[in-house]
Each structure stands twice: as C-alpha cells, then as structure tokens.
Amino acid sequence: MKTNETPSIYKKLIAWLLVIAWTGMLFFFSSQTAKESTVLSGETIRALLTILKPEYLHMTALQQTQLVSSLQHIVRNTAHYLSYFLLATLCTIALLQHNFKKGQQAALTLLICMGYALSDETHQLFVAGRAFELTDLCLDLCGTLTGVVLVLLVKQWRSRRRVNDEDTVD
Length: 170
Known about the structure:
Layout: H1 6-30, H2 34-52, H3 61-96, H4 102-124, H5 134-169
Helix pairs in contact: 1-3, 1-4, 2-3, 3-4, 3-5, 4-5
C-alpha cells in the first residue's frame, strides 16, 4: 500500500463509520416505545426551555406541563428533519470520498437515506405505540434534500475558491 493512499482509506473508513453510527442512533430512538419517546422529547424540551426561556422555571407545574405538551409536535417534527439532514450530510461526505459524479452522489444519498427512512418507519410498526407515518417520511425527505444540497454547494464553493486562489497566485 502506498503511503499517499493511506489517508484516503482512513477518510473513507471514518466517513462510513459515522454514517453507520448515526443510523444506529436513529434505530435506537425508533426502538423506543411511544411512552419512552414522549418522555425523552419532554425532557429535551424542558432542558431547552430552561436555557431559552428563563421564565419557564417560574411557571406553575401545570403551566410548564401545558407548554411542554404544546411543543411536543414541533420538536418531534424538527427532530425528524434534523436527523435526516445529518444522515444525508454524512452520506454525501462519505460518497465524496469515492469517484462518483455529483448527480450520482446526490442520487445515492437520496436512495440510502430514504431507504433507511422507509425501513425505519416500517420498523416502528413493531414498536409499542408507534406507527408508520407518511408525514415523518416527508420530513425525512426534506431533511435529506437539504443535507445533500448544502454539502454539494459547500463543495462547489470550496472548489471555486481554490481555483480563484490559484488564479491570484499566478
């Protein structure tokens, strides 16, 4: 093995290990029962409220419960979007380590992420209190598309910047 190929192999390995680790996290969260998931999102909301809305700590217990309950849907939808945004970002970065064309990278990322989202929603059919939700798939798709577009735009911007830097050196 040539020494100049070694970093490339390590970059590929690390990139794909991050994808696998993140899908493992998604599987863990999808394996939670509806009650466990509600408790976790409620705890997350409470933690965020203590930071973002200091007056939350001075509310009555009933007011706190009502506020947390009113934010559950928004937080869960945001979590879907951000989870697949991150998965798509990681997948696109991993695919950039290979010799695929930009369109192929985008298509493969879309296939991987939406294939995983579909299997994830199917998996939830077998978890107590959970269900297959088309709205979740739509949020996953939106997050996936945003992640792919953002990574490819950053890559394009960096390439143009490199070319401009080389032109100014001449």
